[in-house]
Amino acid sequence: MSTYLIAEHKDGQIKRVSLEILSECLRQGTTPTCLLLGTGNLEAASQELGKFGASKVVVLESSELASFTNEGAVNALYGYLSKQSPSVVLTGGGWWGK
């Protein structure tokens, strides 16, 4: 089973809800692939996910994500996930997940 977590972040910091979902997945024995969307340096956000137990972080960068829009995010996610055949895609109930 392939599980993916869309990790919300702002200014290089992972949102708490994403860390909570990651922690719960790991507690239940599932290691999700974490997806970071954006442009620029997302290294700090990627490292933060690693500190919380993420073993695989994929950064989806696109010029469409320079000023975040739903269309740009969906295009980036579809472009990647359509090639992965995920079983589960998780995201938090924050502004992105609503």
What does this structure look like?
The chain has 98 residues and is an alpha/beta fold. Helix content is 34%, strand content 22%. It is built from three helices and six strands. The chain has helices spanning 16-27, 43-51, 70-81; strands at 3-6, 9-10, 13-14, 33-38, 57-61, 88-90. A four-stranded parallel beta sheet has the order 5-4-1-6, with helices on both faces. A two-stranded antiparallel ribbon has the order 2-3. Strand 2 and strand 3 form a beta hairpin.
SSE inventory with pairings:
Blueprint: E1 3-6, E2 9-10, E3 13-14, H1 16-27, E4 33-38, H2 43-51, E5 57-61, H3 70-81, E6 88-90
Parallel strand pairs: 1-4, 1-6, 4-5
Antiparallel strand pairs: 2-3
What portion of residues belong to β-strands?
15-25%
Distance between the termini: 25 Å
Shape: globular
Q: What's the helix count?
A: 3
Could you tell me the radius of gyration in angstroms? 12 Å
N-to-C SSE string, H for helix and E for strand: EEEHEHEHE
Number of strands: 6
Q: What is the helix fraction of residues, given as a range?
A: 25-40%
**Largest sheet entry:** 4 strands, parallel
Low-confidence stretches: none
Provide the structure class.
alpha/beta
Mean pLDDT: 90
Q: Can you list the strand order of the major beta sheet?
A: 5-4-1-6
